[in-house]
Amino acid sequence: MKNRIRELRTERGWTQADLATRLEVSRNSVNAIENGKYDPSLPLAFSIAELFNLPIEQIFKRD
Amino acid sequence: MNRLSARSWRLLAAIGFWVLLAAAFITGGLAGLLLGYSAAIWLAIFSLGAWRRQDEFERAAQKFAWVFGGLFGLLASLALLPFILQPGILDPLLALIDRALGGMSNPAAPAIVLGAIWIALGQLVGFVVCWVGWHVTKR
């Protein structure tokens, strides 16, 4: 799964640690998701979408 | 206590468990047995505390490590049984366990305990290898 999280995060001037704090996950999680090494669960994907105020399909795309 | 991170809970779980287990072996007898039970209870409580504070990424890592590391660790411990059956290795280990058990009347007791420890150790090593591997590949 591809995603735009890194792009959306940097647009807002947030570090990975900032995003991790907002999502209540570890920085390792954010790093793995951004690099496409880990696909988040549906609840976490919804939390990410709510945080960026975008629909899920505009953040995550199939490979 | 609630403010401690999952990592702190994991660290406390591991340190307390090994300290209590070492104390159980050193003490031996009934007190040692009680210390052994305390080690298991300590590990269960602090592992549960760590689990509840972990995020889904870390939970996924641990599930993966238990499934594959636990399985392959179990198989490896069985495959490596001939290694500990060498007289130079087996005899000192049995003597050590027998001393910790307080010289139980049944001579099979140390062998049963050694077998259980050997398998648990194999699973633990397998878990650690797979857990580290997961984190390295997901960086």
Architecture overview:
The complex is a heterodimer of chains A (63) and B (139). Chain A is mainly α and 63 residues long. Chain A has one domain (2-57): lambda repressor-like DNA-binding domains (434 Repressor (Amino-terminal Domain)). Chain A has 4 helices and 2 strands, in the order βααααβ. Chain A has helices spanning 5-11, 16-23, 27-34, 42-52; strands spanning 2-3, 60-61. Chain A has a two-stranded antiparallel ribbon. The radius of gyration of chain A is 10 Å and the shape is globular. Chain B is mainly alpha-helical. Chain B has 2 domains: 1-54; 55-139, no CATH class. In chain B, 86% of the residues lie in helices and 0% in strands. Chain B has 6 helices and no strands. Chain B is flat. The two termini of chain B are 30 Å apart. The mean pLDDT of chain B is 91. The chains are: A mainly alpha (63), B mainly alpha (139). The interface between A and B is small, with 14 and 9 residues.
Q: How much is the radius of gyration of chain B in Å?
A: 17 Å
CATH homologous superfamily grouping of chain A: lambda repressor-like DNA-binding domains
| Elements of chain B, N to C (H/E) | HHHHHH
Please state the oligomeric state of the protein chains shown. heterodimer
Q: SSE order of chain A in H/E notation?
A: EHHHHE
User: How much β-strand is present in the residues of chain B?
Assistant: under 5%
Percent of residues in beta strands of chain A: 5-15%
The average pLDDT of chain B is 91
Q: Largest sheet of chain A, order of strands side by side?
A: 1-2
Count of distinct structural domains of chain A: 1
Chain pair sharing the greatest interface: A-B, 14 and 9 residues
Total separate domains of chain B: 2
Specify the CATH architecture of chain A. Answer: Orthogonal Bundle
Rg value of chain A: 10 Å
Any chance you could write out the topology, listing elements then pairs?
The complex is a heterodimer of chains A (63) and B (139).
Chain A: E1 2-3, H1 5-11, H2 16-23, H3 27-34, H4 42-52, E2 60-61
Antiparallel strand pairs in A: 1-2
Chain B: H1 6-27, H2 29-53, H3 56-79, H4 81-84, H5 87-100, H6 108-137
